[in-house]
């Protein structure tokens, strides 16, 4: 019998981990090599300070990337004129610039044409490839699983370790597979699908696991839609999210690689397609869903798993004391009651952006809904593209013009009101239809109320001035 035939079957996750294991620490931990480490201005200062204190260099500057995204203002000023007016944020950005220059790290700074959100910029410039391990001091690094790369967020102390060694002491996760059979209905998107999944398995349902998605509905998603799916899987507690590389992801990557010849890309593609779970690989937990059961989803509470179909009603209070107390607290914060409908709830703000939904496909979907229509009176609607490239492409395609004509603010790229670390902050009590990934208390501003939904649904809310089912209220053609 050939030696290869005796190897135990492995999941895609285990194959990537094993191929990047420098040495095993113990039964649960390995020293994991990182192909790429991405930093932003707010999770890296302590790491650089630690290096300076120990007089250590950055081991592999060419495998680092820096980007200013969380604190950067998004006012619609011309390129080259962006100014951080908040003193603390300005100091963070200038310190970050100084550290990147000192250590020879490529930085997308405040004025860079390609500046944007880290999880939008890295894939679009061809840095993310199947089989890679990508680390970043940001939990939504799971995004890169859409391209068959294992990405996950790390803590501040771990950032220092990665800078010094290019490795991470890593606790190996369990294996979870989520299969989605069938096809999503017209007007139902990857955002709806992931909100549905999180609502079904819970905000801690994938805690300690790396999730591999598969099934007909997953295979039918575009690369950017898969990014939305993998991006938000961390909201179920997942340590990582993966979709096995296929023609869709390989084409997306090949079209964006800057440093490989066509021949080299073709050779690499053959290796990418071999990255998949063995047929008899065993998963610790498996879930199976039917795409036909998914409708446009909207959150009603202060956790991403507190979500319902737009035509549904807020669930009755659970019987368990802890869950009941959490639901009561969430409803009180949101100004809602159990049993109430979410359809028809008035909003006064609409935010379209974030690393979840600020790519060109997302903006095309918004334009398809709002073209030729107007934002409702009394609603402030903002679009913050995910990167300079997305912004420029939207302007070339006429997407931006359609948004502006409808009454949306067309902003510069950044994280913006996803987490309100810049000056884009909602007032207390404001109710926002948002394409972001978290609806925690105070996430978009102290006392602000966030309802997560898809870009098309947020666009419909902007036009109606209330939460509505975009499929019923506004005819549109999906991008």
Describe this protein's structure.
- This protein is 33% helix and 17% strand.
- With 479 residues, it is α/β, with parallel strands linked by helices.
- Strand 4, helix 3 (87-103) and strand 5 (106-108) form a beta-alpha-beta unit.
- Helix 2 (45-54) packs across helix 5 (156-165), helix 6 (190-201) packs parallel to helix 8 and helix 12 packs across helix 14 (399-406).
- It starts with 11 loop residues before the first helix and ends in a 6-residue tail after the last helix.
- The model has no long low-confidence stretch (mean pLDDT 96).
Structure at a glance:
33% of the residues lie in helices and 17% in strands. It has 16 helices and 19 strands.
């Amino acid at each position: 019998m050939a030696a290869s035939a005796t190897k135990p079957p492995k999941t895609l996750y285990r194959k990537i981990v094993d191929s990047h294991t420098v040495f095993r620490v113990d039964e649960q931990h390995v020293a994991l090599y990182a192909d790429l480490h991405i930093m932003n201005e707010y999770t890296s200062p302590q790491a650089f300070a630690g290096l300076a204190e120990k007089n250590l260099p950055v081991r592999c500057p060419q495998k680092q990337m820096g980007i200013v995204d969380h604190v950067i203002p998004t006012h619609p000023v011309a390129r080259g004129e962006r100014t951080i007016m908040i003193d603390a944020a300005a100091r963070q950005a200038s310190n970050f610039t100084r550290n990147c220059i000192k250590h020879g790290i490529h930085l997308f700074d405040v004025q860079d044409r390609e500046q944007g959100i880290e999880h939008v910029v890295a894939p679009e410039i061809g840095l993310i490839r199947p089989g890679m391990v990508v680390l970043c001091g940001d939990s939504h690094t799971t995004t890169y699983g859409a391209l068959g790369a294992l990405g996950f967020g790390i803590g501040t102390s771990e950032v220092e370790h990665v800078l010094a060694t290019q490795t991470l002491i890593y606790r190996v996760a369990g294996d979870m597979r989520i299969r989605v059979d069938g096809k999503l209905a017209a007007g139902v998107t990857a955002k709806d699908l992931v909100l549905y999944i999180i609502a079904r398995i819970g905000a801690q349902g994938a805690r300690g696991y790396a999730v591999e998605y598969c099934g007909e509905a997953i295979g039918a998603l575009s690369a950017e839609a898969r990014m939305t799916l993998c991006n938000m899987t961390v909201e179920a507690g997942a340590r990582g999210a993966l979709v096995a590389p296929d023609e869709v992801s390989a084409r997306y990557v090949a079209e964006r690689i800057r440093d490989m010849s066509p021949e080299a890309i073709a050779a690499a593609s053959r290796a990418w397609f071999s990255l998949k779970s063995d047929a008899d690989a065993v998963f610790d937990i498996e879930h199976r869903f039917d795409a036909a059961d998914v409708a446009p989803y909207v959150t009603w509470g202060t956790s991403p798993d507190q979500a319902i179909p737009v035509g549904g009603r807020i669930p009755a209070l659970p019987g368990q004391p802890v869950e009941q107390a959490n639901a009561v607290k969430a409803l009180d914060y949101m100004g809602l009651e159990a049993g109430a409908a979410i359809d028809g709830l008035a909003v006064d703000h609409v935010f379209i952006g974030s690393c979840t939904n600020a790519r060109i496909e997302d903006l095309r979907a918004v334009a398809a809904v709002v073209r030729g229509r107007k934002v409702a009176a009394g609603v402030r609607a903002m679009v913050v593209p995910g990167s300079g490239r997305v912004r420029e492409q939207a302007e070339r395609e006429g997407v931006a013009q359609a948004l502006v004509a409808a009454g949306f603010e067309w902003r510069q790229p950044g994280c913006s009101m996803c987490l309100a670390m810049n000056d884009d902050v909602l007032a207390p009590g404001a109710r926002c239809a948002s394409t972001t990934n978290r609806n925690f208390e105070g996430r978009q501003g102290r006392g602000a109320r966030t309802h997560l939904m898809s870009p098309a649904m947020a666009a419909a809310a902007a036009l109606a001035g209330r939460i509505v089912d975009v499929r019923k209220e506004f005819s549109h053609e999906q991008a």
